[in-house]
Specification:
The protein is mainly alpha-helical. Helices cover about 60% and strands about 5% of the residues.
């Protein structure tokens, strides 16, 4: 059995997560330098002469949004890579059929939870995108067009970027944004919840096929699985030779 190579979607997700981490680090570092180096009496004349910034008011808010993106996108990626923490001491005491039954119950509950979160995430984001939220308390029964649009809502500090100016005509009826509209950072809510639902569905298929007997495993079990895979790979290589 060969080791599974990272798929294209794996690489995209890993690149996105790494980019978010890098952006958070750079913004935080820049804020420290500006505050403790640029914004000092001795450096201010030089900073003003060079036209450098003396504050980064939007840095904290941008970092908070990036951290939210990191957590929400990372949750679905962790399901896909079985990286969530798990306590399986009791599960390991059960027989294989019992473990499979418990795994199916667990993944069913996770799928139900994810579907609820998809609806809630879309309903929360839709008003900022000038879209109608869904009606119905638990299950969407249609769209509620009576809800007032909140597409004009902006974040507090993050400035508007030119690449998003098309949103002014698309959802803000031609009015200009001074700050970033909330529809941009909040779009991660429906995206991440849909990804979470897809990842749990993929795990459900693996459990149904008998290729997995749990949602997550403890680190000890993961290490044992890696050792087994390494042994199988070594045997395959010797067999090919």
């Amino acid at each position: 059995m060969a080791t599974r190579k990272p798929s294209f979607t794996d690489q995209i997700e890993e690149l996105l997560i790494a980019t978010i981490l890098g952006a958070m680090t750079l913004i935080t570092f820049a804020g420290v330098v500006i505050r403790y180096v640029f914004d000092t009496p001795g450096a201010k004349p030089v900073v003003e002469a060079l036209g450098l910034p003396t504050n980064l008011l939007w840095g904290l808010e941008a970092t908070v949004f990036l951290f939210a993106w990191l957590v929400l996108l990372g949750a679905s990626y962790a399901v896909k890579t079985h990286s969530h923490l798990g306590v399986d001491a009791i599960v390991n005491m059960l027989s294989a059929p019992a473990r499979r039954v418990l795994a199916l119950i667990s993944v069913t509950l996770c799928l139900f939870f994810s579907m609820l979160m998809v609806k809630a995430a879309y309903d929360y984001w839709a008003v900022f995108a000038d879209l109608p939220p869904t009606s119905g308390r638990w299950v969407p029964t249609g769209f509620d067009s009576s809800v007032r649009s909140q597409s004009f809502y902006e974040v507090q500090d993050v400035p508007m970027l030119g690449m998003f100016r098309f949103l002014e005509d698309l959802i803000n009826y031609g009015d200009a944004y001074e700050k970033m509209p909330k529809v941009v950072p909040y779009i991660v809510l429906p995206i991440s919840m849909v990804l979470l639902l897809v990842r749990f569905a993929q795990v459900a298929v693996l459990i149904w096929r008998g290729e997995a007997d749990r949602l997550v495993a403890s680190h000890e079990v993961e290490e044992e699985l890696e050792e087994v895979r390494a042994q199988q790979n070594a045997q395959d290589v010797r067999g090919d030779i």
